[in-house]
């Protein structure tokens, strides 16, 4: 969307972690398209700069750093407040999945890294946005989980374990932050991103065949859901996990 096509600003502001590409960028794009302003985070400075240019430098800023770094979390929230004066929405999308193999052989240090990046960082960002703005002014949090967190996930068990924890974190925060801040999660199946390439690359037709809706997800699918969960239309929804799976769970009872 060109800057000239953007709607008037809504006055609302979002912080989206892991926002330089893939699902995170798709969410940031959806929020900017409705008039919100965003701060995106990620590890790569250049990728973030390019993302901000596409989103519009008058509508977006960025902060580079590692999601699990508490100093980075604080700086990201501070930068959002400095740039836009508020932080209504937090989207915890940053995540990692550095290992593929059985749980029986899982390096426990790798498991700790996955948990720290995927879960503890989400809690840290939630604490920061709560203290900086949401506690007094309200807002919403959306945690990006995964279908791997609601079912067995062979060979990506550490990732699935962390996403199950994120779903429970959603429940804990939703209970504690009510009634002023709503907290929900989105659990996507396979979405066509660089992060998920190993799950479909070279065999996309075979993987897609398992989906009743006949395709894999794209970042815009998750962006639309996140936009809904941070809108007034979802004002009576909290503590929920929205599964976006192209219908693949419909096949769970087959066989």
UniProtKB/TrEMBL annotation:
Alphabetical list of InterPro entries matching this protein? NAD(P)-bd_dom_sf, Sc_DH/Rdtase_CS, SDR_fam
Family per record: Belongs to the short-chain dehydrogenases/reductases (SDR) family.
Record-given protein name = 3-ketoacyl-ACP reductase
User: Could you read off the lineage of the organism from its UniProt record?
Assistant: Bacteria, Bacillati, Actinomycetota, Actinomycetes, Kitasatosporales
The record's annotation in SUPFAM superfamilies points to: NAD(P)-binding Rossmann-fold domains
Q: Tell me a Gene Ontology molecular-function term this record carries.
A: oxidoreductase activity
- Look up the domain of life of the source: Bacteria
UniProt KW keywords:
Oxidoreductase
Q: Which Pfam families match?
A: adh_short_C2
